[in-house]
Amino acid sequence: MSLRRKGRELALQILYQWDIHRDTSGWLEDFWAQNTTHAEAKTFAEGLVDGVITHAAELDGLLGRYAEHWTVHRMAITDRTVMRIAVYELLYRPDIPARVTLNEAIEIVKVFGDEQSGSFVNGILDRILREEPRLQGVRRRAIGLLCQRHPGPNPARGATSAEQSAGGGHVGGP
Questions:
Q1: 101-127 pLDDT tens trace
Q2: Got the DSSP string for the chain?
């Protein structure tokens, strides 16, 4: 596991607790005492935690705007926390490629969320990346990842064998 992946997972755990308590005093020192890790992973996690907490209202506003038929507080805590981290990275960490941010968010939520979390998070992050004007610059770099994850039917490439067996794709005549 990379140090940044470990840092994201630690940030998720801290921000999960922060989401419940809206405070880190009294338990954050204990958390770090029980979760010793490489200094680089800890520093990365602390940066994500500070950034997400600082920009929480803005991040929640974006999540609420792009999640159709969902309010942020109705979302599972794990899902919204992973998305807060990812949107923070997309907006405020230009040193992290958007492809990496999206892939990490989806992989982490698959581990910590439920069986539907990966698709849910991917759908909302995809929409934010496609439609949020402030992300226009990073959008082009991430399109390749989104197309690879959910290619869908494309007449230019023809149907895959799975699409053909499911009745999709091209239907050939005699």
A1: 999 999 999 999 999 999 999 999 999
A2: --HHHHHHHHHHHHHHHHHHHS--TTTHHHHHHHS---HHHHHHHHHHHHHHHHTHHHHHHHHHHHSTT--GGGS-HHHHHHHHHHHHHHHH-TTS-HHHHHHHHHHHHHHHS-TTHHHHHHHHHHHHHHH-GGGHHHHHHHHHHHHHHS----TTT---HHHHHTT-S-----
Return the closest-CA partner of residue 162 out of 173, 150, 174. 150
Q: Is 53 part of any domain?
A: yes
Residue closest to 105 by CA, chosen among 68, 69, 52, 54: 52
Count of the separate structural domains present in the chain: 1
Q: Which CATH number fits the domain that encloses residue 136?
A: 1.10.940.10
Distance CA 45, CA 3 (A): 10
Q: Give the Cα separation of 54 and 46 in Å (integer).
A: 12
Q: Name the residue range of residue 109's domain.
A: 3-150
Rg of the chain over Cα atoms, rounded to whole angstroms, equals 18
pTM for the whole thing? 0.80
CA dihedral for 120, 123, 95, 84, sign (positive or negative): negative
